[in-house]
Structure prediction request, 360 residues.
Amino acid sequence: MNDAASAAVRTGEGGGSAARKASLWLRMAAIPTSLAIVLLSVFLGLAIHYWLPWPEWVRTLGAWAFPLLICGLWFLPIPYRLARRAVALLLLACLFIAYQIKTPPPQDWVALMEKSPYVERQGDRITIFNFRDAAHSPGTEPVINWTREDFDLSQLVGADLILQPFGDLKGLAHVMLTFRFADGRHVIISMEARQAKGQSFDPLAGFFRRDPLYPILATERDLIWERLARTPPDPVQIYPLLADKAVLRQYFERVLTFVNDTHRQPIFYSTLTESCMTTFINLAPEAFIHVRWYDIRRWVPGYSLSLFQQLGLVDHSMPAEKLAARRTLPDGLSGPQGFASDAAWSASIRQSLDGPAPPR
Prediction:
């Protein structure tokens, strides 16, 4: 074989090798690409079910039909593969963009979440509008009272962490903060998913932008007794926060700013990024709390007590389980109806943890 022929053979072999390598890389890339298409189509199918304001049967049909349509366009061995996949990508892109830019629409809210709180401030003086002070009785509908309350930030003297575990599910709990003033009054704050009439809280919906985030600013005889008045009562734990008053004030001011921001422009509740736990962590000053994003206790409130102990924010002189047992409100507490004020009832429930109950 002459030199020219040999060179041609080598060139052909080299070209074939390059083609085989390119084909191998394409096949390898097809696996994660196909997986991403399937996962995104399923995610957007669930999004159709949770966030589109259509009748339930239409949303359920769409939740099944959309992933099947996308997977059919992408995977079926029929002609026009490139055109079909282009259509699938276009549908995914359009729905995903619509999903991302959607803002919470006005709805007919349940009575306990009917009004949105907001705050006006002049120096140290703040006025909280739509401050909730509902009266709860076992087995009856709450009597809801929306008030306007004035507080002096210079009189902020402390704060407590409130944990409400959910039964036997150790990883699940609700987190609240309550800020205490020198006159004995409290502002308790709960970050919740705002519920429209006919809906109920669904943790899965928190992944799919269904409900707005709803900050509740209320009295303790409202939010704490609401949980104790249930049948059976929910456990409620109260932990004094070990932090400087100046830092607590900065934290409270950040929360109030956030409340005003969400009043002007509502945002969605998110199980991952804007929940009862993560919202408070996001708003916390660095001097108060800094939690690494990969710490699982950031995302799972039921395991958060050990995190707060580790950070030195609550009593860390004993194991978390023993502390939780000691700081859980006992059964049989008197309701707030027999007390002269919210401040008197707040003092009473803390005395049930720390010593003899004060006079009413």
Summary: Residues 113-354 form one domain. The first strand starts at residue 118 and ends at 122.
